[in-house]
Amino acid sequence: MHIFYHEQTKTFHLCNEEISYITTVLPNGQMGQLYFGKRIHDREDFSHFLELSSRPMSSWTFDEDKFFSLEHIRQEYGLYGTGDFRHPAVEILQKNGSRISDFIYESHDILTGKPPLPGLPATYTEAPGEAMTCILHLTDPLTQIGLDLFYTIFAKGGILARSARFVNRGSDSVWLCRAMSLCLDLPDSTYEWLQFSGAWSRERHLKIRRLEQGITAVDSLRGHSSHNHNPFIILKRPTADETQGEVIGFSLVYSGNFLAQAQVDTYNTTRILLGIHPSGFSWKLEPGDAFQTPEAVMVYSDRGLGHMSRTFQGLYQKRLARGYWRDRERPILINNWEATYFDFTQDALLSLAKKAKDCGVELFVLDDGWFGRRTNEHTGLGDWTPNLHRLPEGITGLARQIEALGMKFGLWFEPEMVNRDSDLYRAHPDWLLQTPGRHSSHGRFQYVLDFSRPEVVDHIYDKMWKILDEAPVSYIKWDMNRSITECGCAALPADRQGEVFHRYILGVYSLYERLTRAFPQVLFESCASGGGRFDPGLLYYAPQGWTSDDSDAIERLKIQYGTSFCYPVSSIGSHVSVTPNHQVFRITPLHTRANVAYFGTFGYELDLNQLTESEQDAVKAQISFMKTYRRLIQFGHFYRLSSPFEGNVTAWMCVSEDKKQAIVGWYRVLNEVNAPYSRIRLQGLDPDLYYHISGTFTGKPTACYGDELMYAGLSTSDTTAGELPGGEPPCCDFDSRIYLLKAD
Ligand code: DGJ
């Protein structure tokens, strides 16, 4: 890893073994983008990468010159209104009504390591040699607004982290109306665009389309990153696939409104913009004020999508997630939500907990309904005191009883919300996000507390702190069940209302920061009606997230497969639930429900007391299996083998660091009659190791070299296809298998 600065040409070259990123000071003093991709040689002068030619209808920067046009030049951080007609990275409204700015290079700093972003989640280093950072200091001479562009290159992997910081060194206030975290101009547009989209219970489905001249974008204006689109996109060469070819992933470390956009211009260059959504956003910068954008992370891979994903997964698992639980195997939990919903008593909870303990569960999680007068969706949110009618000894008493059984205790909160029928709302009706004179829409009969106000965050912190201080709580599920509407803050003046969405998210981050500092051993799981805020921003505080409210194993194939493009297995909350499933009413075999849930944090969300004895035995075996293999699954290297978006069979695998162990999950949605022979090519193994294969499949265990398994493939043909040989169970719909590989 190195950052070269070439004084004569004022060119910066950030590189490691995998990538080069090159930017230069242009003749007009602004920064130009020259290259991002596979590592190339360093040299003093890369100006041949600048493509300039005289074209009609362009506007030219210099008098008597028809070559230097901002329309043709790839910019480092595109500016509005001076000849670059693509969407800009920044727009600043000034006192005189102008939105034009001109950021000129002044100086730079090159640091070892990576500075933190105040108040914001970001990737980090633990030793100085892990990364280097280049900060370009630019200034707009007219307004004296300073712009610092941050670039961190990590020593390992094709990773570049970026952000921008504005400082008002002028004497007038200005309003930032657009401040993207990342702008990247690529020289061509021969890419496919991959996005991870859907809806509640259908999160992060992979969608692919070709880039064309014009705009391709995903976004959120809901106040949270959303079920609908994830703040993560990929550009991939059309011929690239899982194992080969060029791809670039772009991920925003942020949990609020975002925009991820590609714009292909007249000359087929592609501009990627990633950052806070400019719609509805403005931030007043008084003289002396600063504004820091969230971080954006780019990963380049010339070894296909799989390598890119493993780079993101490794970075986000080890250098974005933090704290006690970062490197620890996740407890196997039981959550009472789908078992009881709001309808529980302490006795019912304890009976579920006893059965769970008997099966080997390690953590009992009490979900919604334990506080205030919360017995349905209409009441109680905001009143974070235990309901003593339901829990006579409070949370402390229940938690102690659970601990006495030999399990840890976890608790659900929805800190950002309030019902109108609550003591909190009656005491502070002005604490909602709302706009004067406008009707306030509800979502699930609840309203959003104004977390842009520190006193609101303080109040919730005190309430949560009291419970966590008194009761032995080891885990918190932090839920968030509606999008933000009629967004407005009673405590801010009119010209700062554009700040509220972002200030809200900063308030959420500050509450997470305070709680995780005060209770460092508590495991936080983020949740927003399932996967409505499954993003890198929250991974910084909560190392795992409830992936989706859809707990059906077959639906989960697409959801977990899509999620794996950016996020580590250890972050993917996954439970075995009852059949018929509560979301799609599908009946799937118990072994398939577990075989899918293994590839995540693993737990149960059903009434174990309702299972038959043989099902309870199966649950015991599943839990014991997961305890044996969870380090391999949650902290191994993850490979996607067969896509649920392309066919009837999904497969994925995890390989241990030393490649001596691997586990393959294989899932077939519909059974086939007299099915063709089939095999699946494994990945990530050591070609020279001899692997013994066992697992939950019918047919004979066998042994193969890694190269056989990777290049010839593992046979997955059905032994029961065609005529049934004696004694073997027939295949069925929604079938699945686990293959275990162990080298000598
Ligand atoms: C939505 C979550 O996704 C569910 O798991 C559950 O916690 C409910 N909220 C409780 O209201």
Could you outline the blueprint of secondary structure elements for this entry?
Layout: E1 2-6, E2 11-15, E3 19-25, E4 31-38, E5 90-93, E6 104-112, E7 131-140, E8 145-154, E9 159-168, E10 174-186, E11 192-197, E12 205-210, E13 214-220, E14 229-236, E15 247-253, E16 258-264, E17 270-276, E18 283-285, E19 290-292, E20 295-301, H1 304-319, E21 333-335, H2 337-340, H3 346-359, E22 363-366, H4 394-405, E23 408-413, E24 417-419, H5 423-427, E25 446-448, H6 454-470, E26 475-478, H7 500-518, E27 523-526, H8 536-539, E28 544-546, H9 553-563, E29 572-573, E30 575-577, H10 590-597, E31 603-605, H11 613-635, E32 637-642, E33 649-655, E34 661-668, E35 679-680, E36 690-695, E37 702-705, H12 706-712, E38 714-715, E39 735-743
Parallel strand pairs: 21-22, 21-31, 22-23, 23-26, 26-27, 27-28, 28-29, 30-31
Antiparallel strand pairs: 1-2, 2-3, 3-4, 5-10, 6-7, 7-8, 8-9, 9-19, 9-20, 10-17, 10-18, 11-12, 11-14, 13-16, 14-15, 15-20, 16-17, 24-25, 32-33, 33-34, 34-39, 35-38, 36-37, 36-39
Helix pairs in contact: 3-4, 6-7, 9-10
The chain binds (2R,3S,4R,5S)-2-(hydroxymethyl)piperidine-3,4,5-triol.
